[in-house]
Design goal:
Blueprint lengths: L3 H11 L2 H13 L8 E5 L7 H7 L4 E6 L2 H10 L4 E3 L12 E6 L9 H13 L1 E11 L1 H4 L5 H6 L11 H10 L3 E9 L7 H9 L11 H11 L12 E8 L3
Parallel strand pairs: 1-2, 1-4, 2-3, 4-5
Antiparallel strand pairs: 5-7, 6-7
Amino acid sequence: MLDYDKEAERYDASRGGEPRASAAAEAVLGLLPAGTRRLLDVACGTGIVTRRFAAARDGLSVVGVDRAPAMARQAAARLPGSVVLADSRRLPFGDGRFDAVSSVWLLHLARTAEDVRTTVGECARVLRPGGVYVTTVDKAAAHNVGSDIDAVMASRPRRPARDEAALVESYALAHGLVPAGQARFAGHGQGRSPRRTVADLRRGWFVAVPPGGALADGFAARLAELPDQDRPRPDPVFSLRAFLKPG
């Protein structure tokens, strides 16, 4: 698992920066009801997407939450007074406080299925009746774009995908939420090159392939043999699901 306090300084630049943030924010906003006035962005990270929510609609009040102090500090610089340091499994807000809740690129990081269920339950709890929860799903699958890099990495061990769409939907239903739409958006600037993938291997991006071990070294050697070492392959396309809290 990456250390997101250590990642904070390079996070935006290494993940598509403003173009990716713009695409994510536009897709999430497209799933929110027109009357949304209070939005909670769970796992807001550096606030690069959260800031766009706040600027997108007049009268939209946005609060960001993140549990990594270095990420929360960056978000607070973008949204002064609107960022809270907290864990998504224990949100420090009362029931039904928000018109909408978003969690972009969060659920795939959960260590256990119970963590995902708990996070979805907390998002449902702080959502008012008639509100909408929007989250990314199937993140790992989105990065498989059918490239030569994917072919090299296909045999790597994998941990269970905690954010599979069907699983997330089952957790949402269990907490009283019902499907209310979906969308997709491009992860601009996230298309991997062979050289970048080797760097990702060495810093622990691939959770089930520990950096510095023989397995990681073997994949790195095969990646180094690919042509066009610095040419990014196609960008991933991420998926969003929306869930309504009836009321």
